[in-house]
Specification:
Blueprint lengths: L2 H8 L3 E2 L2 E2 L20 H54 L20 H5 L32 E3 L17 E3 L16
Antiparallel strand pairs: 1-2, 3-4
Length: about 190
């Protein structure tokens, strides 16, 4: 008997002493369990679902990053504006006598933003490093432009002015032309 014949006989196809090559389905061994794994259709459905979820998640992540940068911008603007206000209050409380003559302005606001960080020695005290008055530890970076260059408005400028009068620093704004999530321009904040 050949190798093929012995395989067929061992599978139960032998009828009446002869090998029957046309066995019916009832004589084949029955499969009682499925082969483990996924069908092609199941894999395609899973990939489609994952694609839809990923497509929905990407805009949400972008909005989250933009929202965080907007929060940083609000905080930076608030820090600078509060420092300007503290400078003005210091000037008003001393009736302008504590501000050195080279830094005095008619409005009482600082001449430059760097003055808030570098500070000055009050005009009525002896010059020591401990006597320096500072209003801001460092100039914050604009998260929308990535630089510490801010748009400035002087006391005599119009509220929506984008050109700096140069006399004093009354207000600051972002130089970014971008639009916020709420539809306003960053430079209008």
């Amino acid at each position: 008997m050949s190798l093929l014949g012995s395989v067929i006989v061992n599978l139960g196809f032998r009828i009446g002493g002869e090998v029957n090559y046309k066995a019916n389905r009832d004589s084949l061994p029955k499969r009682t369990s499925r082969v483990p794994g996924f069908t092609l259709l199941e894999i395609i459905i899973v990939i489609t679902i994952l694609s839809v979820l990923t497509g929905a998640a990407i805009p949400m992540v972008r909005n989250t990053v933009k929202r965080e940068r907007e929060a940083e911008l609000r905080l930076s603007l608030r820090q600078i504006r509060q420092a300007i206000d503290r400078y003005k209050l210091y000037n008003d409380q001393s009736n302008g006598t504590a501000i050195p003559i080279e830094w005095k302005t008619q409005s009482g606001y600082p001449k430059e933003l760097k003055l808030l960080v570098e500070g000055f020695t009050p005009a009525n005290t002896v010059a020591t490093s401990e006597a320096r008055v500072r209003f801001l530890r460092r100039l914050p970076i604009d998260p929308m432009t990535g630089s510490n260059e801010w748009g400035m408005r002087s006391y005599k400028d119009k509220p929506d002015s984008t050109s700096f009068g140069g006399e004093d620093v009354f207000d600051v704004y972002s130089k970014s032309d971008g639009t916020a999530l709420n539809g306003t321009k960053y430079k209008d904040w």
